[in-house]
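quick one before i forget lol
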Amino acid sequence: MSSNFYSFVEPQLGRIAPVITQNMFIPTEPALPKALSALETLAIQLDRGANGHRVRRDYETAFDALRARATRFAGRPCLVMTVGDARHVQIYGSDSLYGGVLPRIGLTNAWGGDTEFGFNAPVPLAKLVDFPHAQLVVAGPVPLVARRALAQSALWAALPPVRAGRVAYLPDRMPFGGAPSALRFATHLVTALDAA
């Protein structure tokens, strides 16, 4: 299974094994439904269609359970990002895998702007001032240099979500990883919100 990002190597991959391409990351189109559909598509191509339907059903059931747990957080929009350095973040839109998880589990993406293939980067840290009521969700580890600089940043410290303790740090760093990455992100997010 491959995506449109790897079309340039399909001839080489095709010499090793059949290549199935499914475009999951298209600007303005939700990625999560495509990732879930890819499970079934791959299973059908491998003559395991019933297994693919069962696996997809299992994912949908898991997302439904997380949605039930996340109900009490539905009123606060989430701003999902990764931190590149102490002055810039990468923000995930509705056309990203992480952004698509939010509505699937009953949450709202605070970022309503356009993105390029799921994320918008670099976004100046000062832009976060526009989201005073958001739950900040930092996906993936923050580079050590950026972590130290943020700890000393007056701007970061002054952001209303930071002052209010509404920052969740998640270990996830696979925004293009498909259904397993989406479920892992959703699980970590709901667990972090529960613990706050």
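fyi The mean pLDDT is 91.
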